[in-house]
Amino acid sequence: MSTNPDSLVPQQIAELPWRTIFLVLAIGGFGMLVLFSAAGGNLQPWAWSHAVRFSLFLAMAIFLSHLREEHWKFFAYPLYVATLIALVGVEALGQVRGGSQRWLDLGFIRIQPSEIMKPVLILALARYYDSLPAAELRRFVAIWPAAILIALPAALVVIQPDLGTTVALAVGGLTVMFLAGLPMRLFIGGALAVAALVPIAFQFLLEDYQRNRVLTFLNPENDPLGTGYHITQSKIAIGSGGLFGKGFLNGTQSHLSYLPEGHTDFVFATMAEEFGLLGGLLLIGGFLLLIRWGLRVGQRSKSNFAKLTSAGLSMTIFFYVAINLMMGMGLAPVVGIPLPLVSFGGSAMMTVMICIGILMSLDRQQRVKR
Question: How far apart (Å, rounded) are the C-alpha atoms in residues 240 and 245?
């Protein structure tokens, strides 16, 4: 007589996507090793805090995975309104750190509402297009409400100022709009309009430090000891790692303080110096598997809401990874986007874990139905 192994564990535990959870644990654990090395072989001040935050946010993601699709659809608009109010509160009462006003101090916790808005905006847009009849997708009603949903938080975030998060909100929102089935001509026309406005925005809308970042990206060697220092040292660290790296705890750029922000924005350079191209490819491969899983959740979904939500959340994770890697390699301006689950800091980790929790929720519901 055979025994069903699933009967030995609670059903709610067996229904979890354990392959994905182990993949997330592997990425987060590797991040802890990199932060341990960046601190010269010490758990403090980064590795231990990273491990604690990672554990708490992973537990939060597992909790979120037990919610149903109907719950996310029901709370999409209320969460959007609440987060938008929090963004307004940042402008009135927010803390100023590093020249930016992005954090809201509630006494017992300090939150960054712009990070929470990334997955919340995806949920709100997915709900809107899920409720819109297919015949309306080629009419103006398919554009202006979604444009307002994106423009309101983007405007509040860009004046903080936080250009990277503004772009992330726009990319996530446009992904949902594109997959909802809006005509391609709208996106082509919008892209042309944005291209025409770029010189004006560069001259009159960007702050001085933001313009310097763009100019440094175009020619970092013009001021290698000034504005181009970060990118130059990052390239040196990545290149010096070679194929197999210098070995764990043997990095020089980060340990000798040549590499600025080696535990946050340029953590990939810290990792690549010690683990080389092979370590970099393994880490990138782990992220690609995670993003592929998120996209497959959407492909297997029966409802339009779940399809759009999964694609939008997967794009949000992809944006984090792609922009951070491009920053470290000098392929994109430095906009302060960390490498999720690896860089030190709680805001980006929380956002990505929320995305993973929602994706696990949708994936779990699909497998239960099957």
Answer: 8
Residues 341/27, Cβ–Cβ less than 8 Å: yes
Higher pLDDT pick, 116 / 13: 116
Cα 205 to Cα 159, 164, 321, distances in angstroms: 10, 14, 27
| pLDDT value at 324 more than 60 | yes
At residue 110, φ and ψ (nearest 5 deg) are -115, 120
Which of residues 64 and 5 earns the better pLDDT score?
Answer: 64
Q: Which of 360, 368, 367 minimizes the C-alpha distance to 59?
A: 360
The C-alpha atoms of residue 125 and residue 175 are separated, in whole angstroms, by 10
Rounded Cα gap, residues 59 and 354, in angstroms: 11
Distance CA 157, CA 91 (A): 9
Do the Cβ atoms of 294 and 357 come closer than 8 Å? no
C-alpha distances (whole Å) from 9 to each of 60, 62, 365 are 21, 16, 18
Find all residues with CB under 8 Å of 272, minimum gap 6, and list them: 237, 238, 241, 245, 279, 280, 328
According to the model, what pLDDT value does residue 336 have?
A: 77
Span 32-65, pLDDT tens digits: 999 998 888 888 888 999 999 999 999 999 999 9
Nearest partner of 254 among 231, 282, 234, 280, judged by Cα:
234
Tokens, residue 309? 């939500």
Let me know how long the chain is: 370
Judge whether 272 and 241 are in contact, CB under 8 Å: yes
Does an H or E element contain 104, and which? strand 100-105
First to last CA, the chain: 25
Residues 218-264 have pLDDT tens digits of 666 666 666 677 788 888 888 888 888 888 888 887 777 777 777 88
Residue with tokens 């939060």: 60
Residue with tokens 């994770």: 317
Rounded CA-CA distance 89/85 in Å is 6
Distances (CA, A) of 206 to 174, 202, 203, 209, 357: 22, 6, 7, 8, 35
